[in-house]
Amino acid sequence: MRIDRLIVRYGDVTALDIDGLVLERGTSYAVIGANGCGKSTLVRCIAGVLAPTSGAVVPDPGDRVRYMPQRSYAFYGSTRANVLLGADAVPEAAGRAEELMKALDLSALAQQKAKRLSGGQTARMALARTLVGPGTWLLLDEPTAALDGESMLKAERLVREYRERHNAGVVFITHSLKQAARVSDMLVFMEGGRIVEMGQTKQLLDRPRTPSLARFLELFGS
Ligand SMILES: Nc1ncnc2c1ncn2[C@@H]1O[C@H](COP(=O)(O)OP(=O)(O)OP(=O)(O)O)[C@@H](O)[C@H]1O
Ligand SMILES: [Mg+2]
């Protein structure tokens, strides 16, 4: 998909200002940058839940995005019902929901009211809801921020499997450079609503080209 001259303004604040960006299906992009730099705003535009002030996100034919917002939401009903909210009316969805709940240690909580889940359990449920149906893009806004270490690795594995199964593209927002290295091929570094640097993750983490990213990595490393 393609992003053309995307601008999001809130009054005087420019939250997002991206000239042009091409995202290739089958590739995993980690988006990093400080709080408020525009990461969520970018994926919200791609997901179509936020209309930009100007510019456009131009999907490829057949593109279908699946979006996990930064704040995981529990709707009324059971954990299982919440996971199935993300499903189409396809027959395999029920089985897939059970599979995902098992993989994310939610099976024992399947019948429980979703609003009673803990923060991390709610995030795991939201991830299962995102992965339960087919799509060509996964947009994941800090999907593991609330997860314990073991759950985080399980979540990463499920995302990788989803990507392989659907040849999906992944946009994965994270504050962890180690996670970015594990989950992505390409790194996107944002600052002040702009993409300051983008390139192969391993290369950029080893040899940032801009002083901004070098400074950011240095702060992170300490
Ligand atoms: N609805 C809104 N109204 C006004 N300003 C907003 C709104 N949503 C976001 N912003 C501002 O836009 C900027 C970008 O926000 P965004 O949520 O994209 O940041 P982020 O990079 O995801 O940060 P974080 O790491 O904290 O999640 C911030 O300065 C934020 O205050
Ligand atoms: Mg955010």
Compact overview of the structure:
By secondary structure, the chain is α/β, with parallel strands linked by helices.
| pLDDT < 50 runs, ≥5 residues | none
Nearest-angstrom radius of gyration? 17 Å
How would you state the average pLDDT, rounded? 96
CATH-defined superfamily of the largest domain:
P-loop containing nucleotide triphosphate hydrolases
E-strand count: 9
Q: Write the H/E string, N to C.
A: EEEHEEHHHEHEHEEHH
Strand order of the largest sheet: 5-6-7-3-8-9
Estimated share of beta-strand residues: 25-35%
Biggest pleated-sheet summary = 6 strands, mixed
Tally of structural domains = 2
Q: Report the bound ligands by name, code or SMILES.
A: adenosine-5'-triphosphate, magnesium ion
Query: Mind telling me which CATH architecture of the largest domain this is?
Result: 3-Layer(aba) Sandwich
Sum up the overall morphology in one term: globular
What percentage of residues falls in helices of 4 or more residues?
A: 25-40%
Top CATH class of the largest domain: Alpha Beta
User: Given the helix and strand composition, which structural class is it?
Assistant: alpha/beta
The N- and C-terminal alpha carbons lie at a distance of 36 Å
Give the count of helical stretches: 8
